[in-house]
Amino acid sequence: MDITLYHSPGACSMATYISLIEAGADFNVSIISLKNNEQSSPEYAALNPKKKVPFLVVDGKGLSENVAMQTWIAENYPSANLFPADSWDQKRALSYMGWFGSGIHPHITRHFKPAKFTSVTEAHTDLKAKGKAMYMEQIALVESELADRTFFFDHFTVCDSYFFWIYERALQEGFDLSGFKQCTAHNNLLRTRPSVQQVLARTSS
Prior knowledge:
- The chain has about 200 residues and is α+β, with helices and mostly antiparallel strands.
- It is built from eight helices and four strands; from the N terminus they run βαβαββαααααα.
- The radius of gyration is 17 Å and the shape is globular.
């Protein structure tokens, strides 16, 4: 297969990037600079009209949204064991990833990019505070999900790579997450994985 991941260092494309490495996939990475607004270039918009990352192209066919990409990776690299085996747990995995993508990710964005949501500068401080508070509320729920667990299931799955970004991005924003012991332990553990180290090294380079 000819696989290309369109990725921006630090963006949520990190989740799919980690999973592709974990899967042992042979793939290329094309860097899209969100800072330089390259996602809005005519060339990239023609490829992905949503004008965002990640975007996965497999044998000329494009796929967007982390939930879909992560599921595709797990299904196409079964030997990597990146999805639960049980049918019900597979649905739970989809539920986790849907939650991360639509129920937590937007709160981070409201905090670090308030101008995307309102042009009223005076409202930015309040929007950032509310975004952070809602993020913390959701992370408290994840904390309970991870109680007495190393991963979301009985082994590493695509849910873990996705949550790593959800947590890591907030740390980069300076959120004090030290009170979330289970989530912090999960983050520290994932940082020891070669896949995560490889992606983080590229982020900092």
